[in-house]
């Protein structure tokens, strides 16, 4: 092997170690923790030009980072707010990694509790989730299988520990070819311990949802 090939192989190996190590090492420890006091809600008036009567913010979160991001988005856009909760609770700690890897490898569709929504009521659906094993958690696959998003606008957001959106926004476009999928917002889970109000505001502005006067 010549020097160039060895260098390329080494660089690729280092990138893999950083991404995989990043979420294994920090993913489980750098989280804000789920807050069970944050309840589903209806009819919040938003602070943007979006018509909040037509907005749903829905999210899945296991260790709280995505919940915190969802809550910030909800503060700004209003509408209805729902948490996707598994019928069968996930294990914690290292077991969560093993369990969810198997779930993904088996292409499972874990059930979630009734969200008490009628999708016909909404035009804009903000959908949030953490990155799990380089893709959406399988419960999000169940979510997209469950509803018909034709004609709706989906606005994805996610938290992660190195993968960014990992191509999941494209995956959502493939799931929902008859929906409009806008540019999503990926944020590092570790960054959710600090205030993300401005980041969310700028992102919404970039999508054309300015602050209302
Ligand atoms: C089972 C599991 C798998 C994960 N896989 C990835 C991954 O592939 N890429 C990544 O960047 N982060 C990964 N992470 C880190 C999470 O995406 C990150 O900690 C996220 O903020 C957790 O969100 P939550 O607190 O809303 O559950 C993983 C975490 C867990 C628990």
Structure summarized in a few sentences:
With 213 residues, this protein is α/β, with parallel strands linked by helices.
Topology:
Layout: H1 3-25, E1 41-44, E2 55-59, H2 65-77, E3 79-83, H3 93-105, E4 124-130, H4 138-146, E5 153-160, H5 168-175, E6 180-181, E7 185-188, H6 197-206
Parallel strand pairs: 2-3, 2-4, 4-5, 5-6, 5-7
Antiparallel strand pairs: 1-3
The protein binds flavin mononucleotide (FMN).
Description of the structure:
The chain has 6 helices and 7 strands. With 213 residues, it is of the alpha/beta class. It has one domain (3-206): Flavodoxin domain (Rossmann fold), CATH 3.40.50. Strands 1, 2, 3, 4, 5, 6 and 7 form a 7-stranded mixed β-sheet that branches. The longest helix is centred in the first third of the chain and has 23 residues, at 3-25. The chain starts with a helix and ends in a 7-residue tail after the last helix.
Number of beta-strand segments: 7
- SSE pattern, N- to C-terminal: HEEHEHEHEHEEH
Low-pLDDT runs: none
Count of discrete domains: 1
Major sheet: 7 strands, mixed
> What is CATH's topology name?
Rossmann fold
Small molecules (ligands, ions, cofactors) in the structure: flavin mononucleotide
What is the helix tally?
6
Amount of beta strand: 15-25%
Rg, alpha carbons: 18 Å
What would the average pLDDT be, to the nearest integer? 93
State the helicity in percent bands: 25-40%
Ends: how far apart? 64 Å
CATH architecture: 3-Layer(aba) Sandwich
What is the CATH class designation? Alpha Beta
């Amino acid at each position: 092997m010549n020097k160039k090939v060895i260098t390329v192989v080494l660089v690729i190996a280092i990138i893999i170690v950083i991404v995989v190590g990043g979420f294994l090492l920090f993913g489980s420890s750098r989280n804000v923790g789920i807050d069970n006091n944050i309840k589903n809600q209806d009819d919040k008036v938003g602070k943007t030009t979006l018509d909040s009567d037509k907005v749903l913010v829905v999210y899945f979160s296991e260790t709280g980072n995505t919940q915190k991001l969802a809550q910030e988005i909800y503060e700004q856009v209003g509408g209805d707010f729902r948490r996707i909760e598994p019928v069968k609770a996930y294990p914690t700690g290292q077991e969560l990694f093993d369990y969810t890897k198997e779930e993904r490898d088996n292409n499972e569709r874990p059930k979630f509790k009734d969200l008490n929504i009628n999708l016909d009521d909404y035009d804009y659906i903000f959908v949030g989730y953490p990155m799990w094993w380089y893709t959406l958690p399988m419960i999000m696959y169940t979510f997209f299988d469950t509803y018909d998003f034709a004609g709706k606008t989906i606005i994805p957001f996610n938290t992660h520990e190195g993968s960014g959106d990992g191509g999941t926004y494209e995956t959502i476009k493939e799931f929902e070819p008859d929906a409009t999928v806008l540019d999503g917002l990926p944020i590092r889970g570790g960054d959710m311990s600090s205030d993300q109000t401005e980041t969310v505001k700028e992102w919404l502005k970039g999508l054309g949802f300015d602050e209302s006067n």
